[in-house]
Amino acid sequence: MTDKANLFHFMESVLTKRLMLAIVLVASFFLVTPLSAAEASSVGFPMYAWGQDSPVPAHTPTRIGDNRWIASATALGGFFAISESGHLYAWGAAGTAAQMGQGGSGTSAILTEPTQIGTANNWVSVSAMSWNAVAINADGELFRWGSSMGLWPTQNVPVRVDAATNWIYASIGSSGHGGPLFAINDDGELWAMGVNGSGQLGTGDTADLNVMTRIGNRSDWLTISTGSSYTLGITENGWLWSWGSNANGRTGQGVSTGSTLAPTRIGMADNWTEVRATASTNSGVGAINASGELWTWGNNVHGQLGNGTTGGGYISSPERAGTATNWVSLSGGNAHFLAFNSDGGLYAWGNNDQGQLGLGDTEHRNAPTFVLQTYGHSLVSRGGGPRTLMLIHTAPAEASSILEKRLQKPEGTNLLTSKTFTFNLAPHSFNGNTANTAPLPNIPNRIITLNATPEPIPAGGIITRTDTVDVLDGISFEQAGVFAWRVTELPTTGITPPSNMVDSQAVYELRVYVSQEPGIGGDFYVAALTLHRIYNDAGVALNPPQKTTEFAFTNIYTRTTTGTNDCFGALVVSKNVTGSFAPLNTVFDFDVTLTRTALCPESRTFTGQVYNAAGAAVGSPITFTSGTATPVNLTHGQRLVIDEFLVGTRFAVTELAVPNFAASVAVRANGVVINVTPNQEPNQNLFTGNHMAGDNENSAAFTNVYFFAPPTGIVTGNAPTALPVIAAIGVALLLVSKHRKRIEELPSS
Prior knowledge:
Elements: H1 7-13, H2 17-24, H3 37-43, E1 47-51, E2 58-63, E3 69-75, E4 78-83, E5 88-93, E6 110-116, E7 123-129, E8 132-137, E9 142-146, E10 155-160, E11 167-172, E12 181-185, E13 190-194, E14 209-214, E15 221-226, E16 230-235, E17 240-245, E18 259-265, E19 272-277, E20 284-289, E21 294-299, E22 314-320, E23 327-332, E24 336-341, E25 345-350, E26 365-373, E27 387-391, E28 397-398, E29 402-410, E30 419-430, E31 446-450, E32 462-470, E33 476-477, E34 481-489, E35 499-502, E36 507-516, E37 524-535, E38 541-547, E39 552-561, E40 571-578, E41 588-595, E42 605-611, E43 617-625, E44 630-634, E45 639-642, E46 645-646, E47 650-655, E48 661-669, E49 672-674, E50 686-687, E51 691-692, E52 699-708, E53 716-717, H4 723-745
Parallel strand pairs: 29-39, 40-52
Antiparallel strand pairs: 1-2, 1-27, 3-4, 4-5, 5-6, 7-8, 8-9, 9-10, 11-12, 12-13, 13-14, 15-16, 16-17, 17-18, 19-20, 20-21, 21-22, 23-24, 24-25, 25-26, 28-33, 29-32, 30-31, 30-34, 34-36, 35-39, 36-37, 37-38, 39-46, 40-45, 41-44, 41-47, 42-43, 42-45, 47-50, 47-51, 48-49, 48-52, 52-53
């Protein structure tokens, strides 16, 4: 929580006891129903242990397994934790097997790793001290197990304490290994049982209680912390209370002897938010108020008061420790403390003989000392006894947002070289404020490279090359809020004619919603991401912006073909006539069809010009509408030239039938020879087929062979296949000539 000044007012705004006390339990009741993956990631925490008897003996925080956890506690007898699934676990070097809750007995129970207690999967909170532990399940039932000293019989499995079903908070103390046990119900009532020799039950006397008994008549209790023969608590109005043994000033009442037998208010402040007692005869006490200040009192033999001094003295009333105003959560152990500030920093001070401060050594500290940076922790993280068990995130909240690059190209159009596409994420706003972008993490330009590789034949005539990049890769969030960036693509470089790149003009707004788990020190997590398209690929503003799940930038790459040195023009259709008797002025009719690439507008047109053999233009330019057959007339030696069009454009030419002429054609598409069967007879159409134009030569060279019919009716021509016919024609002509001569020699009558 970043606004400490409003913390207490926040607490006042949720005075409903069920809600307030549930917050103290880290919203554990969410576990009554199955959790989605997203919910689980925001509820559970990784678990770290250090100090005496940790599963991996360590003087620095060490991760335990890969599970995630919702509650934890430590005591002289070991470690306890509740998993996301609601199962209860215990482990450590227990003084008795009973405290491990496994149903065993004896004094040598050592569990070296978290071991499940029973099969129940609805546990929500656990508290432990000395050789006893208590836990509450989601049904509001209270259970206890542990040693037999004091009033407690030995219970080696969790056993129901009473018949109530509305318990939501519990804390157990260490006096004589017999309690006391405190619990708060959903009406805010405080109940207790156990030994009471120093008045630590708060009943007004020192009589022990062997059944749960209501303490006083208040119904606004928020939290309780038990120590060695003394108790502290906070009510909804922010008042701080204490009772029990006053030794070493631990009750904060300004005295150091005797006992306070009933809850008594400490001072007049009304903004206390958290209090923690340590479980040691050298007890020290710490508390935090809504202003983020740390106050301590009690014994200071190990520097546990955190005020920079060390010794056997004590303080009997709360005194300010340090000048920081950003403390948010406090845990107490064996004459040592651990605390989190609003920036997620974990600090420790006090007794460190077992490395329980997590600083890598066993030296005591008399002032808060930085341990590590966290990014969320459980409200029930605890350091008890000479060991510490913490549910914390050591990495900040992270998210993923996949941006896709789409490069569209006409069929047959390949990249000449690999191309790099660059995307910029400019900070836009924080919590909707465009004037304050400082909290936004800096995101470097993201890059996607598409290689120049041959393309497969696509469907529909369009090739789409794609690749992706996670624009939030490596980006973390360390506070709650709405983070927004404007995402654009920078212009592509290195594109020169005849290539062309139409860059996407799209603009997106990427918003990341970072939330924090309920309560002080809750885990930061990414609750949602939204994407809004501000401009489309053509650069047209969308009003209102379009909420979308498609995060893509589409570019169009084309190449223009204008022919080659040997064949100018994107497409050349030529006409040639052979044959000794061929009328060279014959007009030949063609249907020429040019079809746009799929990336061109439907209304696309093309322009062509007819030239004669001398290179002079003949007639006016001809306009070709995409997909429509356009008539063109050519005579011998003329050619139709289409100056340019995009690679991928298709062409098809049909020469219409001409009497006495048989046609053949030489076709090249992108420089590749296309075989077309010539006409075997005159007076037939000839079709080139439909072909795709490329960078290289695109042409259709028609050659027609003339056939004629002399008087005898014999058809002549000069095609190679007509040589026998030509020979026959020659013989016929000779016979005709001779016949005419004979007629001419006859005498007249």
